[in-house]
Design goal:
The protein has eleven helices and four strands. It is an alpha/beta fold and about 280 residues long.
Length: about 280
């Protein structure tokens, strides 16, 4: 009987999730919390879990908060009494398959918020997004097709990513304050990038030793190990299939890793879309 009830609950949850997914696809509604002072906005697969782990470790250690709250950033920051932070994909989530022409182009709802916008090279985002879309999201929203079809898809591909970047570029003056953080800068100069993020948020007097410790905690190897061992006990840090490296949240963590997956025709297509649509955030 207990197994039957659990099975029924799973079915009900799947139906509710699918209903919510369809509703979002039609409306594109984004809710902004009055409690949140700083939103960290990103397209999926732009390094936000990495940044989330580092910031969570810093705040938790600084304010002596249990590590179980490390990934629950809004609760963690409320408990710490520092500016409240939350994370948002702003309609770009891969589970929605939301058509790129339906993005909300007015960001007035963020006018009294600080925005940290995470950017990553489009080619790398496409590859990481593809593996997420075929291996990590719910069955009814999984992408069906190869990587060449994926990057050309209007609900998942490069046009959607560039449209998202361009909407936020055009609206960067709307929030109270706006900080662009590039994934590549986080890789190449992690310490200074984290200091910049902390200063922008308004978290002061953080010792460099603590930041360095948190960066080490958030290293690729340690995050991969934590995901494998499920030590953070969070669904966002669980592999789709434990024996499939491409299904891990922490997958490669490389700059220009796209060269291992995309053929020249696909790379040329991405470059043509960027050239045609424009992308001020993008730099070769």
């Amino acid at each position: 009987m207990e197994k039957m009830n659990q099975s029924s609950n799973n079915i009900v949850n799947k139906v509710i999730n699918k209903f919510n997914w369809v509703l979002f696809r039609e409306s594109g509604t984004i809710k902004v919390s009055p409690k949140v002072e700083v939103y960290i906005v990103s397209y999926p697969k732009s390094g936000r879990t990495w940044l989330r782990v580092i910031l969570g470790k810093i705040i938790g250690e600084k304010f002596n908060i249990d590590e179980k709250y490390l990934l629950n950033t809004i609760k963690l920051t409320l408990m710490a009494g520092c500016p409240t932070i939350n994370w948002i994909h702003d309609g770009s989530g891969l589970g929605e398959g939301y058509h790129f022409r339906k993005f909300k182009t007015n960001k007035e709802i963020f006018s009294n918020k600080k925005i940290i916008f995470l950017y990553r090279k489009p080619h790398d985002v496409m590859v990481s997004s593809y593996f997420h879309a075929i291996k990590r999201i719910q069955e009814f929203t999984k992408f069906q097709g190869d990587i060449s079809e994926f990057i050309r898809s209007r609900g998942y591909g490069i046009k959607k990513l560039i449209a998202f970047y361009n909407v936020w570029y055009e609206n960067r003056h709307i929030p109270k304050d706006f900080l662009l953080v590039k994934y590549e800068d986080l890789h190449n100069n992690t310490l200074e990038s984290i200091k910049q993020v902390l200063d922008f948020i308004g978290i002061k007097d953080i010792e460099e030793e603590l930041i360095t410790k948190a960066i080490s905690f958030g290293s690729f190897d340690n995050m991969k190990k934590m995901e494998y061992n499920q030590s953070l006990k969070a669904s966002i840090m669980q592999a789709g299939q434990q024996n499939d490296n491409e299904s891990y949240k922490v997958r490669k963590g490389k700059i220009d890793g796209y060269k291992d997956y995309l053929n020249q025709t696909d790379i040329d297509y991405i470059d043509r879309v960027i050239a045609r649509m424009g992308c001020p955030f993008y730099q070769n």
